[in-house]
O-succinylbenzoic acid--CoA ligase
Amino acid sequence: MTSPFSPEPDDAALPGTALPAPALGALPRDVVVLDGPLPGDPLELLPRLRTALSRPGPAVVVATSGSTGRPKKTVLTTEALEASGRATERATSGPGQWLLCLPAHYVAGVQVLARSVLAGTHPVVMSTGHFTPAAFADVAEGMDAPVRYVSVVPTQLQRILDPAEGAPDFRAVAALARFDAVLVGGSALSPALAARAAEAGVRVVRTYGMSETCGGCVYDGVALDTVAVRLLPDDAAPAAARAALTVAEGPGAFSEGRIWLGGDVVAAGYLDDPAQTAAHFRVLDGVRWYRTDDLGARGEGGALSVLGRTDDVVNTGGVKVSAGLVASVLLEHPALRQALVVAVPHPEWGQSVAAVVVPRPGTERSTTLERELSAAVRDRLGAAAVPKLWHHAQQLPLLATGKPDRSAAAALFTGTADASATTGTPGTTGTPLTPPARPGLPDTSDGSETLDTQDARRAGPRG
């Protein structure tokens, strides 16, 4: 396989045929359009959702998170939402009551409401203000249904289990442990945080998906029963690409490449956007497929590991470095709570690898820590992948979805960040003395990415 970071192909290079883009004028009058934060109580959406989900066809229009550009309006049908909701029930403990602590205008939030409608249960809603463990406990303790679910992002989970200051709120931890499943998505869940959740008896389900698949459709690396997952290198020949989408295993299957997701959960396309719809939504042998912007690999037992986004790459001195893989290695260090790796401009090499790290409470910033982190990355991924710039922060900058804000993180190193929104101490600003090594990176993977969720109201959403 040549470089997996290939540019967008033209229509003829993609397998199957393009879905036609849904047009605004053709949508039913009662379709629920979510194009911004809700002005009132999210529960006011329930009657509209019940009406929209009572008939076939387009039911909800939800914006992607927009973290890589202009948000796209994704059209979700009743059939797709029902397929997603029923598959979630089969993968967990059946129909149950949901707690909403995410913005309802993004897919993870509206899915809490849609799943409640499909299950015939009444959701419980947290305040849309700042997420705190105490507020979570207050609401969660009032739930009395026999089966209970909640969707959170890693930042919310961390505030409950591993707060930046002080001891965990044990009332919130106990409330979280009473849920039958805690769906976690939106960004990678660190091994340390996953271990803390397991120790606390929290039944975490790592989810992977996006607006275009009605949210999470891969749970703990395994596709839901109505979902197909295929890996397809961008440089695959047309015949091989077609074969890869029609077989799960065998000679036509790939073990690494761009992730394609297929099945009834796939959206109808992007509203009034024929070009992007054709580039990402395909039909092959009657199956709808979504061509993601993520790279994946098959692990033990065929489980999916998400390696990072196709555009989340640092091209440093001619070597392509996966920022997601570097962050995964950093997060294995016990002194770190969070890590985000981005590209920043470099006059000689084009780009440098830069890391924003959030140390655990009581961890002093030191050159020793940075040397340990650098050594870990060098040993696993090679010298080119070692961050040359560091920024120590109290928390990562976040989008409104709760996902890391990569643009804001990069601005911390280029001097364009809004000082009022920046936390932490400046990172090192020096440059390495030797150019990056040129050997290719090994095929190593860890971590996963997922569902569009949130906990803080800042700028924009993931495309």
